[in-house]
Design a protein that fits this description.
88 residues, mainly alpha, 5 helices, 47% helix, globular
Length: 88
């Protein structure tokens, strides 16, 4: 999650991405995303089970910023907010 390429990046895991993004966009959750006003979903991955998702989250959190940016830009080169796509 990020507002733009040069902004703060956030990596998280959830069982319901649409609901979690609604909460972040409306700053309903205290914490990092509210503090830094992170409202845009620019990249996501889907996993069949929580263990795989959490394993991937931990991996991504260890990555260098440049690696995360490259990953995002492969899927979403314009850094478009993907939230409208997931609520359709």
């Amino acid at each position: 999650m990020s507002n733009h390429k040069n902004g703060t990046l956030y990596v998280g895991v959830t069982s319901n991405l649409a609901v979690r993004m609604f909460a972040h966009k409306n700053e309903l959750i205290e914490g990092f995303t509210k503090t830094y006003h992170l409202h845009s979903l620019v990249y996501y991955e889907v996993y069949e089970d929580a263990y795989s998702a959490i394993t991937r989250e931990k991996q991504l959190k260890k990555w260098k910023r440049d690696w995360k940016i490259n990953l995002i830009e492969k899927m979403n080169p314009e850094w478009r907010d993907l939230y409208p796509d997931i609520i359709q």
